[in-house]
Amino acid sequence: MTAGEPAGLAILISGRGSNMQAFIDACSRGDLNARVSVVVSNNPGAAGLERAAQAGIATRCIDHRDYASREDFDRALVDCLDEYPVDLVILAGFMRILTPVFIQPFSGRLLNIHPSLLPKYPGLNTHQRALDAGDPEAGVTVHFVTPELDGGPPVLQAKVPVLAEDNAESLAARVILEEHVIYPLAARWYLEGRLKLEQRGATLDGELLPATGIPYREGLD
Ligand code: GRF
């Protein structure tokens, strides 16, 4: 990637792909100096594949059920991404646990979004867990991916209030709006060379980020 030239994004999805769409939109608006090189799904039925194809983006399906082990699947993913210009890999609702076979070659240029205020609630059913715990707020975290599940250094975190009448769906609907804002922003920082994964953790402009990432607020740039 050289200055001025659009960076290549690979987006990995398993489902509807609303975060993927946020990236497609951010690229077309010029908010991100990037283009989506390929969208890959492990799930042939992912609605996001259709949305990407309609936007004229290359799509690939690598069905994890065709592979004997997680490592074999991850090798196929690496081989697939090798065919495209990829500066940054975006996990956007990608519902497979990745092994070092994939994480290692993309280390430091691999981001995920997780719908909880990490380190709270790694794993699944995050919104229900926040409700069950009686948390007054919930949210979402963009983080670098390391081999520890949902455990890589957080970059950016957005909070939303939990309302008395909330269920998991209504809370998810409030959180996803924040996802579409903070994920492209974190990617922009990366593409501008400001955000880095270092030995000591995630850094922005050379400053070590707090353990829960930067709290998002409007106007953050
Ligand atoms: C999002 O809530 C994301 O945080 C989680 O999976 C969901 C994906 O939604 N990892 P979408 O496919 O981007 O609409």
Task: Report on the architecture of this protein.
The chain is an alpha/beta fold. It has two domains: 1-106, Formyl transferase, N-terminal domain (Rossmann fold, 3-Layer(aba) Sandwich), CATH 3.40.50; 115-143 and 154-221, Formyl transferase, N-terminal domain (Rossmann fold). The chain is built from six helices and eleven strands. The protein has helices at residues 18-29, 47-54, 70-81, 100-103, 126-132, 168-191, and strands at residues 7-13, 34-41, 59-61, 88-91, 110-114, 137-144, 154-161, 195-198, 201-204, 207-208, 214-215. The strands form two sheets. It has an eight-stranded mixed β-sheet, with helices on both faces. A three-stranded antiparallel β-sheet has the order 8-9-10. Strand 4 (88-91), helix 4 (100-103) and strand 5 (110-114) form a beta-alpha-beta unit. It is globular, with a radius of gyration of 17 Å. The mean pLDDT is 97. The site of 5-O-phosphono-beta-D-ribofuranosylamine has 14 residues, from helix 1, strand 5 and helix 6.
Write the layout of secondary structure elements.
Layout: E1 7-13, H1 18-29, E2 34-41, H2 47-54, E3 59-61, H3 70-81, E4 88-91, H4 100-103, E5 110-114, H5 126-132, E6 137-144, E7 154-161, H6 168-191, E8 195-198, E9 201-204, E10 207-208, E11 214-215
Parallel strand pairs: 1-2, 1-4, 2-3, 4-5, 7-11
Antiparallel strand pairs: 5-6, 6-7, 8-9, 9-10
Helix pairs in contact: 1-6
This protein binds 5-O-phosphono-beta-D-ribofuranosylamine.
Properties at a glance:
binds 5-O-phosphono-beta-D-ribofuranosylamine; globular; alpha/beta; 221 residues; 11 strands; three-stranded antiparallel β-sheet; 6 helices; Rossmann fold
